[in-house]
Amino acid sequence: MSDRRNFVKRSFLSSAAMLAGSRLLAGSGNEPQEKKYNTVKGKPIVISTWDFGKEANAVAWEVLEKYGRAVDAVEAGVKVPEADPFNQSVGYGGRPDRDGRVTLDACIMDEHGGCGSVMALEHIVHAISVARMVMDKTPHVALVGDGALQFALENGFHKQNLLTKKSEEEWKDWLKTHEYNPVKNIENIKPGGKHNHDTIGMLAMDAHGNLGGACTTSGMAFKMHGRVGDSPIIGAGLYVDNEVGAATSSGLGEEVIRTVGSHLVVELMRMGYSPEGACKKAVERVLRYNPGNPRDIQVGFLALNKHGEYGGYALQKGFSFAVRGLSREEVIEAKSLT
Ligand code: SD4
Fold first, then answer.
1. Are 133 and 117 in contact (CB under 8 A)?
2. Is the separation of the CB atoms in 258 and 19 below 8 Å?
3. CB 281 within 8 Å of CB 271
4. Cβ of residue 231 lying under 6 Å from some atom of ligand 1
5. 6, 29, 202, 294: which is deepest, by most CB within 10 A?
6. Ligand 1: which of 217, 296, 315, 316 to mutate, judged by most atoms within 8 Å of the beta carbon?
7. From the CB of 198, is ligand 1 less than 6 Å away?
8. Is the Cβ atom of 54 under 6 angstroms away from ligand 1?
9. What is the pTM of this model?
10. Where are the alpha helices (H) located in 244-321, listed in sequence order?
11. Would you please indicate which residues are annotated as catalytic (active-site) residues?
12. Digit-coded pLDDT (tens) for 230-287
């Protein structure tokens, strides 16, 4: 066969293989088929997990309306629940691990693919700003435990006791009933539930059309010391791709890590899924590893694409998210599989 004929044959075969491959990736071949959801006209926009995202969005908005960068907006925004002693799932006042130690997980991403993360960081309220410094000032992506604390102290952060009286009392109560055994408790997912653990994940598109994202949490209440959830893991608790969109998650981190959930959502949007459709698909992936919709697991995803469309989806009822755009400010109850 001539070189040219070989070339034509090879090209034909590889196009056919690519087509088959893309069908495989898309599932049935008819997807994505859903309509566009939740569009805000124009930029900027910021969205974040849970009802308390509303106050955090308001602070992020102050940066966005002055044409600031998305990454600066999300950092400023998530610092609100980090500093709030009454928010027992993020930063100061967060519930401790089973040894009574408050350990924080956080990560941040910018429009250039920059990422920074801290895991199991103690004594520093604004874990997100330490993560930001890891991104901006080090050749690394993630610092953990003592190393993260050392880095924070070297860079002007101050040590503080993060355990509030209320969280300490809850921990002592928990010790009595659970005898030091960590559990993935259902209370975590009931609105107003006893150990409600509600990480903040925030995504923004700035006036220039660039994306940024942040995620910060004290993690699962009464976890084993050293346990790290999805929230500080790039691709699991947060992912930003400035060409396509951004995603973040809340819920049982082990399940989100297993599915590399936020990266999955972004890749589904790249394939053409709407933000809500992509979140739904990722939730279905979680379910695939946990057949029968187990009631002791909650996972919720939140996504924003480059067109300013956004959406969320959860495994169980009760997941909400807050939106702030030029023409809207509201808290939305996400759809769920159950
Ligand atoms: C974790 N995903 O540490 C976090 C906790 C959370 O709603 O989001 N709770 O697993």
1. no
2. no
3. no
4. yes
5. 202
6. 217
7. yes
8. no
9. 0.88
10. 253-258, 261-270, 275-289
11. 199
12. 999 999 999 999 999 999 999 999 999 999 999 999 999 999 999 999 999 999 999 9
